[in-house]
Amino acid sequence: MSERRTITSGSPFEARIGYARAVVLDGWVFVAGTVGTDPATGKPPADVVGQCRCALDTMGRALAEAGASFADVVRVTYILPDRTEFEPCWPLLAETFGANPPAATMIEAGLIDPVYRIEIEVTARLPLSPGRSL
Fold first, then answer.
1. Mean pLDDT of 68-89
2. CATH assignment at residue 30
């Protein structure tokens, strides 16, 4: 039987809405949609690229806690209230995923609060380790 493990980031949304930042199950890591909030201030940067960077930082910590990294991400979904703001994020995203780009989808939709300009969700496969098979 597989063990389900949850990872939290301390976001106030997690407790209020009732979700985990990530769930690890059967060799997979499912990272919840994540908006970009600066952990030092608790507020989102004013621009979409700053918010994208903060969201990726939060997700990177969750992936690391799960035993994975952005190199293990196989699927990513980007949600933006204004699709024209996506292109400025492309260089940061290309740098983050590097030589292992995941399958990707971009959706234009409203987010939980109009202050947020991007939300990112990923699915990763844990790297194989000795004794773990597919």
1. 98
2. 3.30.1330.40
